[in-house]
Design a protein that fits this description.
alpha/beta, about 50% helix, single chain
Length: about 240
Amino acid sequence: MSRNFENWVITIIIMITALMIIFSDKLWNYTHESVSHAVIFWLFLIIFLTIALLFIFRNRIVKIKEAHKSTDNDSTLTYDNSRWVDVTKQQSPLLNTSSKIDTTEDLTLKCIKQFKPRWINRDGKPRLEGGENGNNANLAQHLRNNNIPDVETEITLKNGSRADLMIDNQIIIECKPHLKSVEKLHSLSGELRRVKRTGNYKVYALIYGDAKSYLLNDLKADIGENNVIILGEVSTD
């Protein structure tokens, strides 16, 4: 049943009800003029109420069936007490058909791997549009759009050090545009060590662009292979 037809029927029902209320005195007099008038009136009223009730209940039943069918066929994730469960299709665009119950950490990593940094060509070299801080902010918004809870940027930790992103007060992401020099590796490793000293955070390193394989291996050996995310390419030169 189309939306326009539904609106049209509802409008007619409302108009007839309003007219009956407005002309209630005349209808009262009409029904008391004769038995036939009373029979006609009450017959009309019964038919009118029956049609209205059938339409209302049929409409509700159709909508309930459609909602139930949509819930059965569509799969996605929503956050509930630090866990994510399968519910309706419109909660999060992060995953399409997985029925697995994932933690906030699992979904955060999957969402980060889908992030597309903005690059521009400057003097023949690719540069992050908006720099590292701008893309940190873009990544934070990308996480929020996918219902990742409590995403903050540029956080000051208890020991005074800074963190690029914090998720759900338990996951910290340190970001770099690329990993192509020893200086970048030392800078990132130092930031990660300072974060680790502050508490029991789950710490990850994120490289927006490319990385050299030997530097990437050193970083993985330092913080764990599964704790490094690279969105660009790995080169061996």
